[in-house]
Each structure stands twice: as C-alpha cells, then as structure tokens.
Amino acid sequence: MPENVLIRSEADGTISFGDYKLPSKQKLDNFEHQGDLYKVKTCCDITKLERNGMFVYESVPGTAVEHLNVTGRGCTCQVKGDRDAQLTIQLEDDTEYEVFVDGISVGGMTTNMSGKLVVSVELNEGTAADIRVEKR
Asked: pTM here?
C-alpha cells in the first residue's frame, strides 16, 4: 500500500488497509466502500477493521492487507508483515472452512459461535502471503 494510506478501495471491488510499519496507532473512521462504512485502526502492534460497526478482521501484530474480499463462501486477501501474525477473520457462525496459505491447505477449521476464524501465518518482510478461506 502507498505510504500514509490507511484504507483504500481497489478497482476490482476489494478493499486494502493497514500499515504494520507505523510506530503508534492511527485510525480512520467512516471510510465508504460499496455502501458500507469502514473503520481501520493500525500500527506495528495490531491492525483492526470494522464494517458498519461490526468486526471484520484483526491481526496481532499489525499487518497490511490487500484485496480483502469476503463472500458467503469465505474470503481471500494478501497479507504483509514483518513477523509472524495471528489473523482473526469474521465469517459465518459455527461453520467449517478449509484454509489455504500460498495455495497450500493448512487444514480445516471451524468458526466459533461468534463466527471468528483464527489463523496463524508465517510472514517475512517484503513478501505477501496469499490467504484463501473456503467453506467446506
């Protein structure tokens, strides 16, 4: 993502957000994308995205997410960071998903009663990890 841009809409209809290089937390509220209002908080320690006041994504430590696309079947995105991260993604409640990192299945995971899926991802500075989560 370009420097100093906390969130942006992409030409393909997806959304990109976050900056893991920020030393202190920055946020942007009321960013409109396809009729929804988004809020992003990001820094080196955490990145969090909300849509219409509801949780969408969180990473610890912070990450930069490009081309996030959440559908009824799952989600896809590219994640960048300077160290390994734990991602939490909002999906359907109590549903089983297959999780792929860089095209390789890392196994099936079931969301909890609140629909949160937690994935640990190995990240290296300068290289994006392709994340794909598909409903089984």
From this structure: 0.95
Q: What are 91's two structure tokens?
A: 């999906």
**Domains of the chain, start order:** 7-135 (2.60.220)
CA atoms within 13 A on the CB side of 110: 4
Annotate 1-62 with DSSP letters as a single string. Answer: --TT--EEE-TTS-EEE--TT-SS-EEEEEEEETTEEEEEEESSS-EEEEETTEEEEEEES-
Residue with tokens 């006041």: 53
**Beta strands 15-17; 7-9: pairing state:** antiparallel
pLDDT tens digits for 87-123?
Answer: 999 999 999 999 999 999 999 999 989 999 999 999 9
> Quick one: CA dihedral 51, 53, 57, 63, positive or negative?
positive
The letter for the amino acid at 1 is M
Q: Which residue has the tokens 């990145």?
A: 47
Rg over alpha carbons for the chain, rounded to the nearest Å, is 14
Identity of residue 31: F
